[in-house]
Amino acid sequence: MIDTNASPTALLSVRSVAKQFGKNAVLRDISLEVAEGEFLSVLGESGSGKTTLLRLIAGFEACTAGEIWMGGLRLDPLPPYKRSVNTVFQNYALFPHLSVFDNVAYGLRVRGTPAAEVKTSVEDALAKVKMSSYVQASPAKISGGQQQRVALARALVNRPKLLLLDEPLSALDANLRRQMQLELKILQREVGIAFVFVTHDQEEAMTVSDRIALLRAGELEQVATPQEIYRKPATAYVARFIGQSNLIHATVNAGIAESGGLRWPTADPDGSATYSLRPECIFATVVGAAPLNNSVCFGARVVNRIFQGAAELWQIESAGGLRLLVKTSAKNGSAEMEFAFLAEDLMRVKD
Amino acid sequence: MELRMNGSISGKSRWLTVHATLVFGFLYMPIVVLIIYSFNRDGVGGFPPQNLTLDWYRQLLQDSALWDSVVNSLIVALCAMAISIGLGLPAALALDRVSFPGKALFRRLVLLPLILPGIITGLSLLMLVVLMGLKLSLLTIILGHGTALIAVATTELFAGLQKADRAQEEASLDLGANYWQTFWRVTLPNLRLSIIGAGLLIFTLSMDEIAVSFFLIGRDNTLPLEIWSRLRRGMTPEINAVSTIIFVFSLAMIVIWYRLRVHGGEDVTDVVGTATEEIA
Amino acid sequence: MFSRAYKLAVSLPPMAWVFMFLLLPYGLLFLYSFWTVTPSQQIVHQWNIQNYGELLHVPVYLEVLLRSIRIALTVTLLSFLLGFPLAYIVSFHAGTRKDLLYQLVIIPLWVSYLVRAYAWKTILGSDGVFNTLLQYLHITNHPQGFLLYSPFAVVLTLTHIYTPFTFLPIYAAMEHIPRCLVEASQDLGATPRQTFWRVIVPLSIPGVIAGGTFSFVLSLGDFLAPLLVGGPSGIMISNIVVSLFGAAYNWPLGAAISICMMVLVIALLFATERLEKKWSFA
Predict the structure, then answer these.
(1) Phi, psi (degrees; rounded to nearest 5) at A313
(2) Which residue, of A240, A256, A284, is where some domain finishes?
(3) Is residue C76 part of a domain?
(4) Is the CB of C23 inside 8 Å of chain B's CB atoms?
(5) Same domain, A146 and A262
(6) Is B3 within a domain?
(7) What is the total count of domains within chain B?
(8) Do A61 and B1 touch (CB under 8 A)?
(9) C211, exposed or middle or buried, with CB in 10 Å at 0-12, 13-18, 19+?
(10) Would you say residue C50 lies in a domain?
(11) Which residues touch C26 (CB under 8 Å, ≥6 apart)?
């Protein structure tokens, strides 16, 4: 059956997929497309269903409803060993009784690949992940980060059309994690295979992805590029989940929104509305300087200053009782200061 | 084909189902036959069984010699439990926490009666008894069972200790309790399930024990030895009836044991597996 | 962390008991094996290795020992053939019934050994259930004598007894195999059959070794099954020992055989322990 519904560059097409475990509906009506060579992150809290979605694509679970298509053919009736999809597991799942070489060679061997080809392919794959000198090592004797690389090589050597990664970096410490994020990104560009990357860490998702799919309680909250998801969060949840945000509940009346004594012009209809404002969009104004166009100015008391290394996070309270977070690199400040932000930096979000 | 969440693979091959059925059949067929023929008027053999009756059970109820041996077995089993656990608990504690000279030897020595043919343990104890000039009696049997089954208690309790939270004992000491108080208030309650499990197992093993008892028996028979001596005289369905009752009783024990383990949150295969690994 | 008093209190009683009632008795056994017995049934404390010599030179002992080893090996092999696939089924294919199936395998273990061996006796005899069934179905005309009182009967009975024993460690080893390894194998393109041979089997080997050792050693030293269903041709080495302590009154010789068995078993345990370690990748 030829698939006529997918867009031309879509590699994987998830259509209205749902998954239920007994009475528990873990995934509800998920529709998603993954383009060729794309790095897509599936982001969400624990329990959001992101790992389940991955397992459906890999073939370890069956969909309760919906279909999954890949390359014009239906994927979901196929068992895992017939799908051109490989997985990097969260705890790496390296075979303890096989050496690093044999682990990486596994997929090739079960398919009957001739020995010479196996050797060159495995050596190539290990070189790509910088594990060439560990060829004969046993998985028990290498570190977590090294195991992770071997797991990557083991998956990639089979040249799958799609690579699934289930929180592969979550077991690593912070520094190694950051390093691996960059390496992963570069590797993905190099091999040109589409990656679907599951994580609960929004910073990680922002670092590596071409696009982010944010899952919340089994439903897709927003699917967009990192820039878009950050600057134009669709809902309050997205605004809170991605980065830090101030959520301002305002009342709109005849083109003016008002909250806690602050006012700004808006095109939104009358009624109540929630706005998201990123902390770095609020800045302390220099006393005596002229206010910028379209800026909202107000005075506030600095309640708390949290040192974060490159910048500081200030908790401020306006005269009208509005509590806001400000991210600033300003090192000096007094208890009472003047602040401002641009009206255009306010994003209307759904509650 | 799918891989379900609990790790099982569906779409099983028919051969596997056939194999499983055959093996279960093999394991249970003799027992089923035994039970059926306990109701057979005409004897333990012959097919098909006709003339079903409860007579053999009635005869059983009046068989005083048999009931005497049951009482003896119970006494022995309970005393064996006391000895095995009473010594197995300190042994497990010692193995878990203390390094002392001869520890490795001790560990293996303790496990020997389980893996060696029971008659060897029985024989050697007989020699000791003769040397000490003791008369053979229930007491010597209790000695034999207790010694042979210390290993069971030690292994179960050792496994239980390994699973227990060591930090709790440290907290107790930190809060001012001394070693004895810590033992009674913290260690023992944590081991409660292991102790009960070990007790059930020891009880069952003791009730069924023949090899060691064979050499240490005096005038009073235990149940298995009583059955054994009757067998030498000839087979009657009364023995089937006793066997059926033993089976039902064992069934009850294992269900209780299993429920205890599972509801205590322990992984049954872990406990049994550890025990068998230790032994082997 | 533990005081000296605690350590003493905890290690002394068991050690004392084990010394008194295990080490000493085994030691006595060892001593006895070097003594002899006079025709008038007195034990003479003369030190010699005559008993061990007798074992080697009198053919019947060696013959029975070899038969016992043969029977034990057969039982081990059969128990493995029955128990290994069963462990695989219960561990990987049982789904929601896993608990129940596991209990079903364990239950026979808890039922009296004597009861089970006795059951076989009633089944295999000339008037037994199996023979009369065959005649009832007109498959045979007269009782098959070889069923009972033969090594065959002993092997059958012992296999019945020790299959669950073999099952347990294999099952435990299989349960320890992380399921993600099975998923990883399938993810990489291996069919369930390939996964079985390449992943599950290698990782079950320690369990197989443990289970096999268990069955072999316990079968070898068994004395009840041969007594019940073995007949004269099914006698095993333990029966000889028992008779030497009974009617054939020769304690020293019996002790010598026992010591040989002990040495054999302990040596085997050491060997398989090494083997197990080599094959375990946790």
Answers:
(1) -110, 120
(2) A240
(3) yes
(4) yes
(5) no
(6) no
(7) 2
(8) no
(9) buried
(10) no
(11) B112, B124, C262
Neighbours of chain B (3+ CB pairs under 8 A): A, C
Residues A234 and A222: their CA atoms lie apart, in Å, by 7
Q: By residue range, what is the domain housing residue A319?
A: 244-349
Question: Is C145's Cβ below 8 Å from some Cβ in B?
Answer: no
User: Do both A62 and A147 map to the same domain?
Assistant: yes
Residue C239 lies in a domain: yes
Residues A182 and A267 in one domain: no
Same domain, yes or no: B45 and B69: no
Q: Which of B31, B165, A216 is closest to C122 using CA atoms?
A: B31
Cα separation of B142 and B96, whole Å? 27
Tell me, yes or no, whether C5 lies in a domain: no
* Residue B237 structure tokens: 């369905």
Cross-chain Cβ contact B3/A21 below 8 Å: no
Residue where a domain terminates, one of A240, A263, A297: A240
Residue C133 sits in a domain of what CATH number? 1.10.3720.10
Per the domain annotation, does B228 fall within a domain? yes
User: Which residues in chain C are closer than 8 Å to B250, comparing Cβ atoms?
Assistant: 107, 110-112
Is A277 in the same domain as A307? yes
**Structural domain tally of chain A?**
2
Helix (H) or strand (E) holding A214: strand A211-216
Contact A214, A242 (CB under 8 A): yes
Q: How far is CA C53 from CA C30, C45, C59, C66, C125, in A?
A: 15, 17, 11, 17, 39
CB contact under 8 A, A96 and C190: no
Count of beta carbons in the 10 Å neighbourhood of residue B203? 19
Whether the Cβ atoms of residue A141 and residue A95 lie closer than 8 Å to each other: no
The answer to whether C186 and A80 are in contact (CB under 8 A) is yes
Show the CA angle centred on residue A259, arms to residues A258 and A263, nearest 5°: 40
Burial A254-289 (b: 16+ CB within 10 A, else e): eeebebbebebebeeeeeebbbbbbbbbbbbbeeee
Which of B251, A61, B25, B17 shows the shortest CA–CA distance to C90? Answer: B17
Q: Does C115 touch chain A (CB under 8 A)?
A: no
pLDDT at A72: 87
CB contact under 8 A, B2 and A21: no
What are the distances in angstroms from CA C101 to CA A327, C95, C98, C182? 61, 10, 5, 21
For residue A78, what is the nearest residue in chain B, using CA coordinates?
B1
Separation between Cα atoms, residue B29 and residue B35, nearest integer Å? 10
Contact between A266 and A311 (Cβ < 8 Å): no
Residues on chain B touching A19 (C-beta within 8 angstroms): none
Name A20's bridge partners: A25
Q: Which residues contact B168 (CB under 8 A, 6 or more apart)?
A: B186, B190
Q: Summarize pLDDT for B214-245 with one digit per residue, the tens.
A: 888 888 899 999 998 888 877 788 888 888 88
Q: Are residues B46 and B70 in the same domain?
A: no
B112 and B187 together in one domain: yes
**B5 in any annotated domain:** no
Cβ–Cβ under 8 Å, residues A302 and A335 = yes
Buried b (16+ CB within 10 A) or exposed e, B120-136: bbbbbbbbbbeeeeeeb
pTM above 0.90, yes or no: no
Question: Do A228 and A254 have their domain in common?
Answer: no
Nearest CA distance, A81 vs chain B (angstrom): 10
Tens digits of residue pLDDT in C107-158: 888 888 888 998 898 888 877 788 788 778 887 777 777 788 889 999 999 9
Predicted pLDDT at A11? 92
pLDDT per residue over C161-214, tens digit each? 999 999 999 999 999 999 999 999 999 999 999 999 999 999 999 999 999 998
CB C239 within 8 A of CB B104: no
Q: Which domain holds residue C127?
A: 66-278
User: Measuring CA to CA, which residue among A316, A306, A312, A314 is closest to residue A331?
Assistant: A312
Query: What is the domain range of residue B118?
Result: 64-279
**Cα dihedral C208, C211, C217, C222 sign:** negative
**Is the same domain home to B41 and B115?**
no
